[in-house]
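Support case: user asked for a sample of complex input and structure output to validate their parser. Sending the pair below.
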Amino acid sequence: MNEIPPIQGYVIISALLFAIGLTAVLVRRNAIAVLMGIELMLNAANLNFVAFWRYHGAERMEGQVFAVIVITLAVAEAAVALAIILSVYRRFRTVNVDQINLMKG
Amino acid sequence: MPQGYEFFLIPGLPLLAFLVISAFATRKQDEELAPAFIIIALTGSLVLSFRALMMVAAQGELERTVPWLSVGTLSLDLGVLVDYLSAGMMVVVCVVSLLVQIYSIGYMRGENGYGRYFAYMSLFSGSMLGLVISNNLAQTYIFWELVGICSYLLIGFWYRRPAAAAAAKKAFVVTRFGDLGFLAGILVLSALPNASFGFADLAHRVETQRLAVGTATLVSLLIFCGAMGKSAQFPLHIWLPDAMEGPTPVSALIHAATMVAAGVYLVARTYFLFAVAPTALFVVASIGTLTLFLAATMGVAENDIKRVMAYSTVSQLGYMMMALGVGGYTAGVFHLTTHAFFKALLFLTAGSVIHTLHSNNMWEMGGLRKRMPITAITCLVGALALAGMPPLAGFWSKDEILTAAWHSKLAGHQVFFLAALVSAFITAFYVFRLWFLTFGGEPRTAQARQAHESPWVMGGPLVILGALAAVAGVLKKSVPGTGQGLGELLSREGAPEPFSWLVMGLSVAAATGGIALAWAAYSRGLVSPAAFNRRFPGVYALLKNAWYFNHAWELFATRVVIAGSALAAWFDRHVVDGMVNGVAWLCGRVGQRLRALQTGQMQFYVAVLVLGVIASLLVLVTRETPKLTGWWR
């Protein structure tokens, strides 16, 4: 497969993915859904890494390595975030982020 | 150890004695030991000072330094500079100090704080020697302040007496005015490129003309400010008469022979700066002349024996300053030396009288020549020396000053000469008024009838100082250990001023006239001072109140200073504090408004963050558009 498909498609999909994730983070009340939005955004970034790596000739491995690192980070982040959400649930009996406003100044 | 470093011990020994006395000899049962330490230390310093003098004669000037601290390119050293000026001055300081300490054993016996007294005296002697031997201005300033604090401590030695405490404070505050100028002078020097405080460096800089005349004038005037405070020059002279509240040996050592002469010494030390600044020289000469004349007249109407001598000291310091100002460098330093001897002598004789009578008022004395022959004769020697009668020491030095003023190239030197000549007459008058009132005539009180001669521990120093006051004039022809006269040793510009029979005749005539008038008025009663006072009450009041300088300063302090302070306080309270409070108020109000943004809603924060990132990206993109166009093609 020597023919490289044009990069625009990847970038547009990645942008859509990022926007969907951001929307979820901004508008969903459920903390779990917010977390899922973050995962989407991370994966949008991953898609960009891999696409640009391929587009730039694929001699060097940075793009792929970054993607792998981001996946690892995402897993770790999800574990920590779920633990926090669990503990928040025990404390407030809810995972609705609107009702958790102890940071109010 | 390389040669020359032993001279650090000259100030070092008395400072060590200070520590030892403070640590071991201030308790009541150990106090008797205190004078032993200081006398041993001063003897050591005296021997070393003589050695220094002979070394200079054999090998020329000598400078040794140890680095102390360096700031950027500026390095401060502790150093000793041994030349004829410093070595000679050190010998004078050591001799007078040693004799005063011996005298103090008798004078201060039984006083509370006997050990404390000798501790302060050692600190003073060490600081004074450190000031003299210093090789740079910064070190001079340190010791300058040290002698100032010793002066404060010793004037206020009887601190339970309100007058003594007030006098100490006055001396400290008034000299501080001058010291501020001195410090400013040092700071100006430090701001120059390749700044250095060393006297040798500065002299070299002046010689190679790398110092602008304006800078030299500014620095020398600022240094002279310090000298004015320390040497009690007009208009900062008001502290010295009050300083007489201290013990008399303190007055003799600090306020007659050494510390007050430090100002003159400082000007002499930095004379290379003054020499290239004619304006500064003129100021020095004018201030000196004003001081010598005003102070001499103030001495005439004073009844306190020590205050007469204090005014006399101010006046004689004025003579020295005037000599330096009109270019008589040698004359000024010479008078400094002879004055140290005869004025210390006069103060010690006054102390001897006060010690037995417990009174300072000359009208409560009289006829003491029969009861106290040694004191009377030595006082007569000192008085003749001060008046400038040949062949005593004061004659030679005063004559040299008058000659220098006569031959000076400075504008208005005739006025300086005339003022000095008239003041020589007044000097002779007031000092013999003092002598006749104290020792002449008949006893005027019961105490005076029962006066007794002081013990030998006090009489001995009087006799030695009397001898020195009588013969110190030979220094003009030959300084011991060098075989040359003071003039040849000190002068940098060749031969000293020519001897003038006319000037000498006038000087002797003035002195004789003054003595004769005093004799006529206070011994024979041919002229009545009381009648004069009735005839010219204004003149008498003016002199009696010392030209109202204290009143003028008090007015200045209470009106100008307090008004200025009130203005500054208002400014501080309303403008400075207002600004600070205003900033606080503004922050509070802004915070009140901004706290609405802290909703506690995590998603709101994220939204703001995203908007921020988008805004930043937009800015970046619009700025970098030329580079980014075609990026997606």
